[in-house]
Specification:
Two copies of one chain form a homodimer.
Chain A: H1 3-34, H2 41-59, H3 62-74, H4 83-100, H5 103-126, H6 129-150, H7 157-165, H8 171-194, H9 210-224, E1 231-235, E2 241-245, E3 248-253, H10 260-279, H11 295-309, H12 313-326, H13 328-331, H14 336-343, H15 357-376, H16 384-396, H17 422-442, H18 445-450, H19 455-464, H20 474-482, H21 489-503
Parallel strand pairs in A: 1-3
Antiparallel strand pairs in A: 2-3
Helix pairs in contact in A: 1-2, 1-3, 2-5, 3-4, 5-6, 6-7, 8-15, 8-21, 9-10, 9-12, 10-11, 11-17, 15-16, 15-17, 17-21
Chain lengths: ~500, ~500
């Protein structure tokens, strides 16, 4: 065994331990959102803080630094895209980030975001921003401290946080790509509005019994390729997907008897994330080669299954009769074309996760514009509801009636996930670009969907994206897979192809 | 601050960390039994093994040994029953036990019992002992190694394991008290058989819709004092209670539409454990003063609520009409006396957890007799089904038709819980002795139950037992609370008072 091989094995063992420990925290977080008794929150916060502290200690153990330095100095790690080189590159990045964070800050953040999420659940339920404000202030202060500790270029502390979720991205680049997208989206939204066409969306708020929603959503998630022997679907206030580890990936959704799309497309969305997690290389578990690229790439998978598959006409050619059988009262007298038009209705609405494909990205841009000043200090948390409503009115021409439908709607900030939102819009762009290539390479994808066959697309994603782990950073992965750098054009092409037809533009 | 106070504070901090870390493992174990996807077992085993290793490292850190030695040498810990003296005494016991176990053995045991429990679930379902045997062999080998590492007196390795669950107990003492109890039980069982009376137990296997069982069981658990803001009730193959930490106590049960007593008395039983956990002093969490005394004392609480309360005549004076409302088809035409007789039917049966109060202890004695030779090596795991069935036939005069109803019925051995069973019979003895004292001190307990009032008994248990934590070892607690050493007489008095009347003896 060469010296390099020995050092590398030791490094891998260290990394796997840290991942395994973090996966324990993940399960505790999942439980916190799903089944934790009301008065167990304080104890859960203590557990998570302790685990975060130990994981941080292990992730920053000087031995990892030594191993990395020796491996880097040895220089015989082969091709830059080899598993060995990739694991060393990403381990270095993680180690540098982690060692810059004091343990006290890690533990304190873990503790605060655990309690703060509980506070958010109540605040959202009662639409009471005041009870959440002290927690938001704590979270923002901690995230600012984190940005300072990590460091950033261009004088933009927000970039230090963004980089956590989308390695290598900067707010300047995102602003540039958002700006191109924004203009074309606003134009499309206006054209749709002026078309005068409005599908009858009241059919989606008829009575859809929750048990039937669960049955139908689960069956569809299984059919598109989510493996329930290696995962579950539960109910939470805010839907999410958590890849706890090999063989254990957990999706959540929320049901509303009088809103079919919420849970259904939510389930498709989370199943898309889940299919990514289940498609990672289990043999590389615990190392960067066994991990997802970035949140943007993750989101590209969920949005692809949710929108490019789940809201497509061929998909419903296959599933509509089953949907009618599951919801005879709601859909018995509705034709598939009316249903397809309704689930693709485009109009301004308050809730991001229920927004249509076209306006969705505007919701993201609004949040991106508020996050940066929250972190720079130019926006005080106390002013958030007012600024949110102002910006919202500017973007959407409607004003949220309360904070539950405004700035309290998302769990992210309560969970310390600042810098996370822009990855959603990046995900939409990645999704369309990947999907265009998949269609080119696989040919008859829509016809497959019409027959209820999704294995071809899933395998393509497995080999082109999932199994590669963190081999390439997001921007390079896009180039490797699609042959082109990231562009907003495939997204706009998809939107025009679909909505020009639906709205006769 | 005195030197002792400073050392003591540091010790407490160390102990709390270990408890908190173990509570993370507990949540993972709970999830493993309730919601873990089938293929997540391997990863869960790795998680639990890692946490067990870290907890063991922390529990055996030499600093704890130093702190204990300095505190013991200082000698100013006050009264032997003071919180300070108790915490030091019990911390010393735990430290000595823990430091005798090599980390490798702890990790390996954690890993094996996690996988072995999964194997047991399948083996029990298919009544296939052969698939469980290799796991049982691994578990027994590890537990023998554990006994050797811990050490034992009297040449009985089993005692080293027993002491884990019932500190200070020995198999010789247990044998003595079982032997006195056995003779009187066998006599009572014979008298009941000879009475010729047999209640109509077919009413208990009519159709009891599971949703109604859940509603009724939950309502009763709440009314006797289990706080659902600080706990939950879920479904598992083998029911248990897990006190994860302050504000988070989890009960489980299993429902069978055609067997009312299983889930109902199972829920009462686990709620009894839960009331103990919820009654511990949260201010002492993480230290011995905030922990339960022993498994025997824990079982005294569950058996008290299950049998002395839940199977009593006054209890059903209060709840029978509600039961009839919940199960109109099954109980509409059944009078309360017939129901009371049916739930107190005494006869030989295969499943311990469904056994009546009288024969139950014989199930325990059988297991106790098999565990000792399993650990000494006189009984090979492969021979277990045969010996089980032989002993069972000797004790009960019936032979299990398969291993699911025989040696595969309990989770314990798969979970490495060898030495645990005798605490169940001890629990029955403690329960009767405590309850007799409670009745003397509180006067009108049965009248309270008849009115659906349980707060008096619960408060009495809270202050006499729960809030005391580990202040006294089990045998001393019994003396302090009841004024007498442990005896099997209160149990036999209770059984005679009840069954002599029911069977006209």
């Amino acid at each position: 065994m060469t010296t390099t091989a020995k050092l590398y094995d030791e490094l891998i063992e260290q990394l796997q331990k840290v991942t395994l420990l973090k996966s324990c925290s993940e399960l505790l977080c999942w439980d916190e959102q799903t089944y934790l008794p009301a008065e167990g929150a304080e104890h859960r916060a203590s557990q998570l803080s302790l685990l975060a502290g130990i994981a941080h200690e292990q992730a920053t153990t000087p031995r990892i630094g030594e191993l990395l330095s020796e491996l880097e100095a040895a220089g015989d790690t082969g091709d830059v895209d080899s598993p060995l080189a990739v694991n060393i590159r990403e381990a270095r990045r993680n180690y540098n980030r982690a060692t810059r964070l004091p343990k006290r800050l890690v533990e304190e953040t873990s503790r605060v975001i655990s309690l703060s999420q509980q506070a958010w659940v109540s605040a959202r339920k009662e639409s009471n921003f005041a009870t959440f404000l002290p927690w938001l202030e704590k979270v923002v202060a901690l995230k600012r401290e984190e940005a300072e500790a990590i460091g950033y270029g261009d004088g933009i502390p927000y970039d230090a946080l963004l980089d956590e979720y989308e390695p290598g991205a900067s707010s300047a680049e995102i602003e540039a790509s958002f700006s191109a997208l924004r203009d074309e989206l606003v134009e499309l939204v206006a054209a749709i509005r002026e078309s005068g066409k409005q599908p009858d969306i009241s059919i989606l708020t008829r009575s859809y019994p929750i048990e039937a929603q669960r049955t139908f959503g689960t069956a569809v998630a299984r059919q598109i390729g989510f493996d329930f022997n290696k995962g579950r679907l539960d109910v939470t206030a805010h839907p999410f997907c958590m890849g706890v580890g090999p063989g254990d990936c957990r999706l959540t959704t929320r049901y509303d008897e009088h809103h079919f799309p919420g849970a259904f497309f939510g389930t498709m969305h989370e199943a898309g994330h889940g299919i990514y997690e289940q498609g990672l290389n289990p043999g590389a578990y615990g190392t960067p080669m066994g991990e997802s690229v970035s949140l943007g790439i993750h989101e590209s998978q969920s949005r692809m299954w949710e929108n490019l598959v789940g809201r497509s006409r061929p998909f419903w050619s296959c599933f509509y009769s089953t949907a009618q059988k599951n919801f005879p009262e709601a859909l018995g007298d509705v034709g598939v074309e009316d249903f397809y038009a309704a689930i693709n209705d485009v109009r301004s609405s308050f809730i991001r996760v229920e927004a249509d494909e076209v306006t969705y990205n505007l919701h993201i841009m609004l949040r991106f514009e508020l996050e940066k000043p929250l972190i720079s200090g130019d926006l005080s948390p106390a002013d958030l509801p007012e600024i949110w409503n102002e910006s919202f009115t500017k973007y959407f021409d409607i004003t949220p009636p309360n904070d539950s439908q405004g700035c309290l709607q998302d769990i992210h900030w309560s969970a310390g996930l600042i810098g996370y939102f822009p990855t959603y819009a990046l995900g939409n762009m990645y999704a369309s670009q990947f999907f265009a290539t998949a269609r080119e390479e696989l040919g008859d994808l829509p016809e497959c969907f019409g027959r209820g066959e999704f294995a071809e697309l899933k395998s393509w994603l497995n080999s082109n994206i999932h199994m590669r782990g963190k081999q390439f950073r997001a921007h390079r992965l896009v180039e490797v897979v699609t042959g082109e750098p990231l562009s907003h054009e495939p997204l706009m092409q998809h939107l025009h192809a679909k909505y020009d037809a639906l709205y006769g533009l």
